């Protein structure tokens, strides 16, 4: 990561936000409530992962091909979203190394596009390898990932606002991209 005041400020801002949500991340085991040392260790691990994501995201922005994949360029403003969707951890490509998925947005003059940045470990370092579109400020649906299971399946849901439907979706790493492998409607809530 460049040692500039802007990137250090960004890292500190992300670290503060991440610490607030570190113990709420559904993809990492939760430490026992009565062990402050475990809470601190979990928080530190999360902050270390966030620092890695910021570094990998900055590296992707400076790489021409990856920058196009992210959607940066022109007047677009690209930012990681840590409050709305915490980092998801898991081995989704079956290489026995922990991979990370992080939400980000691209604000264009027309709208805001929401995406997931998909990072894999390459010789111990995170590398952005794929982007999954989630929706836009104008779209009629929104994809949200919740969990990466022990088989590397990314679980989530997709809400179709106009139809009032919510789908349980599953994504899997298929060689070079995350692809949807199943979609089932969530049962209607009682009384709806």
Question: Which terms would index this structure?
Answer:
globular; 192 residues; 9 strands; 3 helices; alpha+beta
Could you tell me the strand content as a percent range? 35-45%
SSE pattern: HHHEEEEEEEEE
Q: Which structural class is indicated by helix and strand composition?
A: alpha+beta
Please provide the count of β strands. Answer: 9
General form: globular
Largest sheet: 5 strands, antiparallel
Distance linking N and C termini:
50 Å
Rg, rounded, reads 17 Å
Number of discrete helical segments = 3
Low-pLDDT windows of residues: 1-40
Helix proportion: 25-40%
* Averaged pLDDT: 78
What is the fold's blueprint, element by element?
Blueprint: H1 5-21, H2 36-62, H3 64-70, E1 77-81, E2 88-90, E3 99-107, E4 112-122, E5 125-136, E6 141-148, E7 154-160, E8 165-173, E9 178-185
Antiparallel strand pairs: 1-3, 2-3, 3-4, 4-5, 6-7, 7-8, 8-9
């Amino acid at each position: 990561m460049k040692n500039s005041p802007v990137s250090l400020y960004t890292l500190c801002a992300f670290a503060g936000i991440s610490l607030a949500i570190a113990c709420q991340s559904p993809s990492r085991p939760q430490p026992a409530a009565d062990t402050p040392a475990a809470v601190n260790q979990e928080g530190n691990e999360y902050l270390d992962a966030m620092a890695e994501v910021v570094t990998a995201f900055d590296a992707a922005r400076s790489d021409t091909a990856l920058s196009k994949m992210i959607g940066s360029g022109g007047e677009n403003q690209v930012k990681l979203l840590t409050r709305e969707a915490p980092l998801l951890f898991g081995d989704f490509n079956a290489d026995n190394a922990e991979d990370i998925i992080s939400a980000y947005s691209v604000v264009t003059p027309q709208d805001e596009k929401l995406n997931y940045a998909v990072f894999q470990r390459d010789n111990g370092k995170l590398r952005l390898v794929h982007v999954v579109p989630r929706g836009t400020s104008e779209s009629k649906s929104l994809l949200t990932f919740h969990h990466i299971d022990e088989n590397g399946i990314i679980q989530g849901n997709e809400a179709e606002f106009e139809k009032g439907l919510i789908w349980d979706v599953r994504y899997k790493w298929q060689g070079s991209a995350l692809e949807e492998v199943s979609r089932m409607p969530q049962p209607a809530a009682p009384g709806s």
